[in-house]
From TrEMBL:
It is an enzyme of class 1 (oxidoreductase). The lineage of its organism: Bacteria, Pseudomonadati, Pseudomonadota, Alphaproteobacteria, Acetobacterales. One of its GO terms (biological process) is pantothenate biosynthetic process. This is 2-dehydropantoate 2-reductase. InterPro entries: 6-PGluconate_DH-like_C_sf, 6PGD_dom2, ApbA, KPA_reductase, KPR-Related, KPR_N, NAD(P)-bd_dom_sf. Residues 180-305 form the Ketopantoate reductase C-terminal domain. Catalyzes the NADPH-dependent reduction of ketopantoate into pantoic acid.
Amino acid sequence: MRILVLGAGAVGGYFGGRLIEGGGAEEVAFLVRPGRKAKLERDGLAIESPQGAFRARVRAVLPDEAGTGWDIVLLSCKAYDLEDAIAALRPAVGPRTGIVPLLNGMTHIETLQAAFGEARVLGGLARIFAALTPEGVVRHHGGHASVAFGELDGTMSERVRALAAAFAKAPAAEGEASANIRQLMWDKLVLLHTVAAASVLMRANVGEIARAPGGIAWMNRLLDRNAAIAAAEGFPVRPEVLEKQIRPMFQNPRAMNQASMLHDLESGGRIEGDHILGFMLEAARRAGVDDALHETAYIHAKAYENRRDAGRLPARA
């Protein structure tokens, strides 16, 4: 199996690097921008992780260098970079190429299907707490690192099985082949929106919010509304996932979880406001769910974007 990873940042760099380390794929290459290509060619790909470090020379290519014949594309860009990613991918996508997006949210699925055809697009998600350092190192902060992927129609295709086999040999990275990938994507979105809206509005991680008066109850109200939205969309979060995996996080005063959106906002960067907060606001209104918390979070994000566009963000030390 030949795998092309679009992006070599925190997500693409980590899982692509682990696939190379495991040796379960015939070839793994990274489709990147010129600056990242030069850095990878000079320094190699470096991963720092409590589960083991990795450093190696890797193949990095620009769009006109990728060629065709790729079995799988792992798409690991930010949602706001999707249009640029599609343009970069076009020369590399052949008749048998399957595209596994690891983006946040849901709207990218239809966008990719419109660009490449329904048959080429799978569902996917990543679960990892990692960041790309200014020096270009992928720093995994620990915990479970996994991806899930599957055909959107629920079939267990040969390409899904082959990708799972490649991940089975990768150290410190799990690849889950799912016959119900849409459900898993909604499970993640319920969690993601709750963390993102809470941490962005309160400028704090989950534990810091939990230690504030009323913080636990506030986060659980938001979580319950997100669960109601998922149910209205036809993908109710399974009770064992909601009550045993998700809710305990929002009741833990020591939880360190925070959304990458908070890091992006505090660093003055672009954020996935429309793709996560805006999408869930629209879904809340379709479902008839109280949207006051969702609207506040979305307005906050758009006001930040307006201030950023005007060059009025506070200067960073």
